[in-house]
Sequence to fold (95 residues):
Amino acid sequence: MASNGRGSGGGGKIPYPKHVWSPAGGWYAQPANWRMNTIIAGATMFSIVAVAWNFSAGRETWARKPEDGWYPSRYWSKDLQKYDAQDRAAEAKKE
Fold:
């Protein structure tokens, strides 16, 4: 493809009003501590998700034993762990 002398990417920065304030930093914001801000935001989100997950997993109940198969909640559901223990005890009793 032949070059026409213009670079790609839309050109340089456009002029913008300097009196506009934005909580996100405005146009072309690149705060000096963006890495630490990103780490703090990620840790905060992870903590909130972990608390919500723990709250939900602790209150998960199964009304009946599920059909055979793999369910991710087998790792944390007390009901499914109880059903699996009963199955193992029944298998051991048969042998």
About this structure: The CA atoms of residues 85 and 91 lie 10 Å apart.
